[in-house]
Design goal:
This protein is mainly alpha-helical. Helix content is 45%, strand content 7%. The chain is built from three helices and two strands. It starts with a strand and ends in a 10-residue tail after the last helix. The relative contact order is 0.22.
């Protein structure tokens, strides 16, 4: 959820399993939100959606860094709710 200019923005919920490593999920969210705000400008809902998708995909990667690409995050945002990183 993101509050901006008097409006709440709600992101989709993803059910991913199994979670491989939760370390770095918050950092992936923060980085995804910064990227999303810069890329999508005033579309706060889309920026939040990017952040949540990036954070969810991080859960499938061992280690404390998010090694997913922008197209992989956008693929999840577009409706592939598997939560799997395709490489």
């Amino acid at each position: 959820m993101l509050w901006d200019k008097g409006q709440f923005h709600i992101a989709p919920v993803y059910d991913i399993a199994p979670i491989v490593d939760r370390v770095g999920g918050g950092d992936a969210f923060a980085g995804g939100l910064i990227y999303g705000l810069r890329r999508f400008g005033d579309d706060r809902g889309r920026a939040l959606g990017f952040a949540v998708a990036a954070s969810c995909l991080k859960q499938a990667i061992v280690g404390d860094f998010n090694a997913v690409s922008v197209p992989e995050v956008e693929h999840l945002m577009a409706g592939d709710a598997s939560g799997r990183v395709s490489r």
